[in-house]
Amino acid sequence: MTYSVWLSGAENRNEFEESVQRRAQRVLLQDNGVNNLSPQPSITKRQASNIASGRFEGRVLSILMDSSSDTWRVRMDRDGTVFNVFVNASSGDVSGTSE
Question: Whole domain around residue 18: which residue ranges?
Answer without folding.
Answer: 8-37
